Amino acid sequence: MTLIEQVKELHAEGLYSNLKILASMLLTMSDHSTDMFPPMCKYQLQAYFADSLYETLEYKRAEAMYRKALQQRKAASKNNRAKTSSSTPPQQWQPSEVELKYRIYQCHMHLKENRDAMSILESVPAKQRTAKVNMALGKLYQKAGMERSAVSCFKEVLRQCPLSLDAILCLLALGVKVAEVAGMTMAGVQGMQNSEWLSSWIKGHAYITTKDYSRAINTFNTLDKKTLLRDNLEVLGALGDSFYKANDYKNAIAKFERIHMLDPYLLKGMDLYASLLAKENKADELQQLGTALFQVSDRQPEPWITLGYHCACVKRHTRAIYFAAKAYQLNQESVQALLLKGSTLQQIEKTQEAILHYREVMRMVPDRLESYEGLVECYLSNGRNREAVSVALNACKTLGYTPSTLTLYASVLMEDPVSQDKAKSTLDRALSIKPDYLKAVTMKVKILQIKQKYEEAIELLRSQLVNQSLCVLHQLLGDCLSAVSDYQEALDQYSIALSIDPTDQKSLEGLQRIEKNGNNLEANQDEDVDAMEDEEEAELLGSDAEAQWSDQEQWYGVQ
């Protein structure tokens, strides 16, 4: 067995640390003795050495060695002596030039050098591009905002591999019509058994991209319950994402919880799950989830984000910011890491830094509501109401006039007493779309309280409590009842609220306020009773004195 065959054997067995040492020595020897290996063998040796560097995480060295291998290949192609030194022409050497360029792309991606990664893939002639080259180039084009080029690449991927489902998602996200995407895909799988789920899966994701979340939920629910895809993690993930975007956080949490139970080692989507748990202030669940995820990996952002949300819940803001920064360092495409850091900075009143993070999220993914909400809150806290109005209107245009975006717009309008009537009509519009949307309900109640329309607020809250018995609704009803002096029922409502959440501060304050008023009322009543008794006693004493005086007058008169 020759030295080159030994190198191939180490490469085939995946013994990259051993290969790295041997290949390094052989290449040094070949530099000192140019006749030691024929051009093809030296090319293969360089490629194998580069592979060993890549596998041992030395990406910069690997990229440089792959480029040396490319130069070796090009030199051999131009050198006529290559025909005498090897019976195999350079064009047929393995690995191929396309494969070598793809590996250089991978090195650049690890080094976060996106432009260089794009450049090396673009150097591959269009007719020679494999499906994975087109997929990688499409992703880079999509990230750079070059949508037409990205669409062309993804369509080429589908032409070569009709069941490239990630390419389908990318095309839908880029606005390609579902009929065109489905046509390209279904034509390639026509007559294939067990493929009836595919059209529904494509439709479900098309509904998500067009923000028709109710239809998306129905479609994925059907796939989960009525097909062989029951308990499939991809379907459940899409279902959870649809519930989340529809602001149905309760059902979204249930779906992600089910995903985690089915596969505790899955990290995808767990950062979103953590953010939902944080909205519900479930600190214990977040700690348990974070601990479980760290047992899977500490080199992915999701475990760090989960513990970051836990720290934010328990007011350990410095650690939350550190965990968010660590997650972003691991993956600079992690939107949830930016949102976590932005919201935590906002909580400690570093609004300018928070604004920068929210803007970056809007640049990366314009369809995340949290970035708009965070920006609006930051601008309002700084008295920059015009910017807040602009962001809220942009949210409506980008995400559509949904209950959540309308409520966000109303939150800005209600800051100005002049526009509170407009805010109320905007909330009415939101509630006409989704009658039980909690944010809109609570905000409308606050406007009615400001305008002292307590009876209307009480009627709204009673109608909401028929379908959802929530702590905040009982607390607000208690406030309104207290305002109209219905203290007994207000007391009942605060008690119900505290039975749901014993730590609710507003309900506790309302309860104490009523008790204090009650004590003052009793004290006033006691004072009134005492005063009445004093008056009665004075009257009695006065009447006795008069009677005695008249008796004396009568006595002296008789005398």
Describe it for me?
Helix 3 packs antiparallel against helix 4 (59-78), helix 8 (131-143) packs antiparallel against helix 9 (147-160) and helix 16 (270-279) runs parallel beside helix 18 (301-313). This protein has helices spanning 3-12, 16-32, 39-55, 59-78, 82-85, 97-110, 114-122, 131-143, 147-160, 165-173, 178-188, 197-209, 213-226, 233-245, 249-262, 270-279, 283-294, 301-313, 317-330, 335-347, 351-364, 369-381, 385-399, 403-413, 420-433, 438-450, 454-465, 471-483, 487-500, 505-558. Mean pLDDT is 89; it is low at 552-559. The protein has 559 residues and is an all-alpha fold. 38% of the residues are buried. The chain has 30 helices and no strands.
Summarize the structure.
The chain is an all-alpha fold and 559 residues long. Helix content is 76%, strand content 0%. It starts with a helix and ends with a helix.
Features:
559 residues, mainly alpha, 76% helix, elongated
Order of helices and strands: HHHHHHHHHHHHHHHHHHHHHHHHHHHHHH
Low-confidence stretches: 552-559
Shape descriptor: elongated
Residue share in helix: over 70%
Through-space gap between termini: 160 Å
Rg calc: 36 Å
Strand content: under 5%
How many helix segments?
30
Structural class: mainly alpha
Mean pLDDT: 89
| Sheet having the most strands | none
Total strand segments = 0
List the helices and strands and how they pair.
Blueprint: H1 3-12, H2 16-32, H3 39-55, H4 59-78, H5 82-85, H6 97-110, H7 114-122, H8 131-143, H9 147-160, H10 165-173, H11 178-188, H12 197-209, H13 213-226, H14 233-245, H15 249-262, H16 270-279, H17 283-294, H18 301-313, H19 317-330, H20 335-347, H21 351-364, H22 369-381, H23 385-399, H24 403-413, H25 420-433, H26 438-450, H27 454-465, H28 471-483, H29 487-500, H30 505-558
